[in-house]
Structures are given as C-alpha cells and as structure tokens.
Design brief:
- There is one protein chain.
- With 582 residues, this protein is α+β, with helices and mostly antiparallel strands.
- It has 3 domains: 324 residues, TIM Barrel (Alpha-Beta Barrel), CATH 3.20.20.80; 98 residues, Galactose-binding domain-like (Jelly Rolls), CATH 2.60.120; 123 residues, Jelly Rolls.
- The protein has 10 helices and 32 strands.
- The strands form 6 sheets. Strands 14, 25, 26, 27, 28, 29, 30, 31 and 32 form a 9-stranded antiparallel sheet that branches. Strands 4-5-6-7-8-9-10-11 form an 8-stranded parallel barrel, surrounded by 6 helices.
- α1 links the parallel β4 and β5.
- The protein is globular.
- The model has no long low-confidence stretch (mean pLDDT 97).
- One of its GO terms (biological process) is carbohydrate metabolic process.
Length: 582
C-alpha cells in the first residue's frame, strides 16, 4: 500500500520525493499484443510513469452494454504497466478530447434532443453515474492505496477550454471520492487565465498543457496555485493530422530543448504523445472551431511522437532520452528487438458486391416522413443511406441538405450527380425533375464527431431535412450502414463498379509481421482485414498507407474487404514495408 501526494513544491511516494516523468500511450490505439513492447520502450527512455485516457464510448457502446475485453481491456493494460515497475496516471473523465470520436462521449447521448453535455444537467450526470458504477470499481484495486500502480486520476479534461460550471466539476470529484477513488485527483488546462479559472477545482491539483514556453506557462499556473508542484500534463511533442492537410512534424531538437527547460525547473512532465498509435475503425474525431468549420482527423495517430505509429523509436526518442540522462540515471534495460515488417506485395481483388444490391442483406429499411439522424436510429458510426422519390415535372432547382453531417454522395436514378461535403459549403448540385419523377438517393458518411470546442453536439447523417428548391422532401427510406456485420454480403466475380461497392480479395501469409497497406489508385473508403476495421483511406491525403499490425493477420488465408465509394483505376492493393503519412 502506498500514498502518492504532494507537499510544497514536490510530489512524494510515501515519504520519498519523486519527479513524474510520464508518457501517454492509449491502450485503445494499440493492439493488445503490442502493449508490453510499447511500455518497455517507455521505461527504457527513462520514464517512470505511463498515462492513458479512458474513452467512455469504447467501453459503453450502447447504453447499459459494457465491454472491457481485447483492445478495451483497461485493467490488463494497467496491470501490465505495474508489473514492469511503472506508475500509471488514468484520465477517466466523461470527456477526453484526444482527437477521438466525440471526445470519448458515447454517441447515444445525442438520441436525446434535450441532452446537454459536460455540465450540471441531471440526465447527463445520471449517465455518468451509471458509467462510473461500472468503471471505477474496476480501477479501485489498481490504486496505489490498494497496492496497485495507479497514482492519480483526472477529474475532467481541459474543462476551462469549454465551460466554467463548478458544480459540475465538483459533482465529478465527489462521484470519484464516493466510489473509493482515494488517490491524487487533478485537472489539466491551458496556461491561460480563463482556462484555469474555468477548469480548476478546490482541493484538486491543477496541471497545465502546452508545447512550448514552459517557464511562462508554469508562472501562470503558480499565479493560481502557488503552493504545489508544477506539472505539464500534456507536453505536445508533435501534432495530429487532418485530411487535406500536410503531415505535421516537429524537430526532435526543438522538443528536447523544451523538455530540458522543464526538467531544469524541477517540473514533472507527461509526453503527449509518447506513442500515438492508430484510430482504427471509425474512432477518429474532428475539429470544428466555428459553426461552419469541420476538419476530420486521419486514421493514423502517429503524432510525430517518440515512437512512431508502428512503435519504432524515432530521432525524437533518442533526443529525449539524452536529455533525461542529464538529470537521472537510465535503467540498464535495453530496447526490445524490432518488430518484424514484411512487404507481402500486391493482392488482386477478385470479387465485388455492389452496395445497391446488398442493402437488405446488411441492413434493415426504416420508413419515416423525414430523414432521421443516426443517433435517433440507434446507429453510432459508419454510413447511412436515405432515398425518396421526387415527383415531376419540376424546373431546375438546387438541392439543399440542411445540416449535412458530414459528406453525401448524391444519386439521381442511380447515377452519381455529385458530392456534398460540410467542409466544402460552396459546392452546389442542381437538377430538373422529369415528368416521371426522379429517385433521389443520398449516401451519407459520418467522418467523425467533433471532439473539441463549443460545437460538440454533432449529430450525424441528415439532422434537419432535404429540400429541392424551397420545398422540403418527405417519405424517406433509410438504411443504417455501420458496417459492423458484413456477413450477409453476396459477392460475385469482378465487374465494372457501378456505385459504392465492396471488393474482396485474399492475402496469403506464411509468417505474420507488421505491414503497410497502400491503396494507390483507389479513391475513398474503408478497409477490413479478417473483419477488423483498419479505418478510412482517402486519396486527398496526407495519409497514403494504412498500418496493419501483424497480430491482425493469420497464418494462411486472410480476407481483405475494401468498401470503395467511387471507383478504382485497378482493383488491387499492395502491402509494403514502409508507412507513407504524406
């Protein structure tokens, strides 16, 4: 049994002063088979602590249905870290940001049209309580006060960037304490007046997040908290990428310089990120800083961190390790052997299943007078198709999708008329309707709910309505397409693609290894390997390859399914040895 506390300007483990040197690894962005490899590399860098968020939406995908297995096995990850001699910082806030879908909040919250988020709104707090009743008892045996490795828990995440509802923050604090969370509690915010004023909680340690100007940031923190140790809970050593942008990088020497400044001040630090990992499936979030802006995050969460997306030490890793060695002796343990990588070469797609011919095999139609958003239909992620008949004749008018979330392929009598995208509001689609009418079909893609800022109430699909000219259109048939169960697909031999379609091929593997999937010549879609959703690809970049961890492969035959929205120049894919993030 141990006690982690602070007194004056120092942290103490029992009665021994300790400086926290931590790195963020999100268990949910790394396949479980590689957790130990990443944690050993963290320790070999000179760090003594690992920090992780806990995404509520991963653990409670549907109200009252919980999962803590496989990549969601939080307890196993913490126990593994403890067995390696590492402390653990856990950030189990209802909200985590993390460039993660909806900032970790479960999308089913948005099925309630009156729901208010991250505030003292009793229906929201009731859901938090139900979640904590399941989550926190799993953490209690892992607390340092119970002999485990967990030394601290976060109350809420960067709340001062969102609001200043102190009753809400105190409710979360008391919810943790009443459930036996008797370790150090903390908050983390930007080093600005409004953020610290909004995010700090009485009798809770405040920490700050930044990427540079350490001395200035800590001075601001001390204005509000003069008698406590200073800690950077998120030292942004790199950054994340949005689609359409260039890949972000930060020079190793620059990150090392800021670290040196922090350590010279005696500060504790948590690298965000030490190892980023991957936004598998539909878990990547988006930014929306204004009402009209929307910037979806790519599948890779490489973050230009100390370990790259596939877990290899970078120049930044060694630069950081050299700085840490100036202040403390490094452990004698070396780095584990590199994980094998293979170029499996090209794989031809040999079968095709058009979406139009398989809707009733992988979904169930819903009829409604107006289009409903995903959340009202119990759908979390993926795609959703809406269809209606517009009677004619009608003159040429513009098609309006009010509050499109996020991207719609527009079909008229089965022919693609264009694409509407909330990120490109100037795009217009106009058409006349012949006397016999026209079948309007809209395939809408959820590109990730906003994870940060004031516009997080980001319902998906069509959230208001569809107009041709001034007239709202009614009598809709809707197919939810989460792509979670594709077993009903009926494949046939390859043929020219007409509309969105599923391609299938087979990769033969004689020795499992990490590999990188290139979709050169393809346009936009999703890839599944042996039923596991690797994530989105898009030829606009910056990301050009998808990381495929070796444990996802099988000895022998591996089923590859590509859901392509537009079409491909050549129906083949290629597995190489090197990533290309743009």
């Amino acid at each position: 049994m141990s006690t982690f506390r602070y007194s004056g300007s120092a942290f103490y483990m029992n009665d021994e002063p300790v400086q926290i040197l931590s790195g963020a690894i999100h268990y949910f962005r790394v396949v479980p088979e590689y957790w130990e490899d990443r944690l050993i590399k963290l320790k070999a860098c000179g760090l003594n602590t690992v920090e992780t968020y806990v995404p509520w939406n991963l653990h409670e995908p549907q109200k009252g249905e919980f999962q803590f297995e496989g990549i969601a096995d939080l307890v196993k990850f913490i126990e593994l870290a403890g067995s390696l001699g590492l402390y653990v910082i856990v950030r189990p806030s209802p909200y985590i940001c993390a460039e993660w879908e909806f900032g970790g909040l479960p999308s089913w919250l948005l099925a309630d049209s009156d729901m208010r988020l991250r505030c003292y709104h009793q229906p929201f707090l009731d859901h938090v309580d139900d979640y904590y009743d399941v989550l926190l008892p799993k953490l209690k045996p892992l607390l340092c006060t119970q002999g485990g490795p967990v030394i601290a828990l976060q109350i809420e995440n960067e709340y001062g960037s969102y609001g200043n509802d102190k009753p809400y923050l105190n409710y979360l604090k008391n919810a943790m304490i009443s459930r036996g969370m008797d370790v150090l509690l903390f908050t983390s915010d930007g080093p600005e007046d409004a953020m610290l004023q909004g995010g700090m909680v009485e009798d809770v340690l405040a920490t700050v997040n930044f990427g540079s100007r350490a001395r200035e940031s800590f001075e601001k923190l001390r204005e509000y908290q003069p008698d406590a140790p200073v800690m950077c809970m998120e030292f942004w050593d790199g950054w994340f990428d949005h689609w359409r942008e260039e890949h972000h990088t930060r020079p190793a020497e620059d990150a090392a310089f800021v670290l040196d400044e922090m350590l010279s001040l005696g500060a504790s630090v948590n690298f965000y990120m030490f190892h980023g990992g991957t936004n598998f499936g539909f878990w990547s979030g988006a930014n929306g800083h204004t009402e009209d802006s929307y910037e979806p995050t790519v599948t890779s969460y490489d973050y230009d961190a100390l370990l790259n997306e596939n877990g290899e030490p970078t120049d930044k890793y060694f630069a950081v390790r050299d700085i840490i060695a100036k202040y403390k002796p490094l452990a004698a343990d070396g780095l584990p052997d590199p994980i094998a990588k293979k170029a499996y070469g090209k794989v031809a797609m040999t079968e095709l299943a058009p979406l139009a011919g398989n809707l009733d095999r992988i979904s169930a139609a819903v009829r409604s007078p107006y289009p409903e958003p995903m959340e009202k239909l119990g759908q979390n992620y993926g795609f959703i198709q809406y269809s209606t008949l517009i009677p004619g004749p009608r003159p040429k008018e513009e098609l309006f999708i009010q509050d499109l979330r996020d991207r719609a392929l527009v079909y008229l009598n089965g022919e693609l008329a264009g694409t509407l995208d909330r990120s490109e509001p100037d795009t217009k689609i106009e058409f006349a309707v012949p006397p016999g009418g026209v079948q309007l079909t809209l395939l809408v893609e959820n590109m990730g709910r906003i994870n940060y800022g004031p516009y997080m109430k980001d319902r998906k699909g069509i959230t208001e309505g569809v107009r041709h000219g001034r007239q709202f259109l009614s009598d809709w048939t809707t197919y939810p397409l989460p792509l979670t169960d594709l077993s009903g697909l009926e494949f046939h031999s390859l043929q020219p693609q007409q509309g969105p379609a599923f391609y299938r091929g087979e990769l033969q593997v004689h020795e499992r290894a990490d590999t990188f999937l290139s979709l050169n010549g393809w346009t936009k879609g999703v890839v599944l390997i042996n039923g596991f959703n690797l994530g989105r690809y898009w030829n606009i970049g910056p990301q050009k390859t998808l990381y495929v961890p070796g444990p996802l492969l099988r000895e022998g035959a591996n089923e590859i399914v590509v859901f392509e929205l537009y079409g491909t120049e050549l129906p083949e894919i290629e597995f190489g040895e090197q990533p290309d993030l743009g």
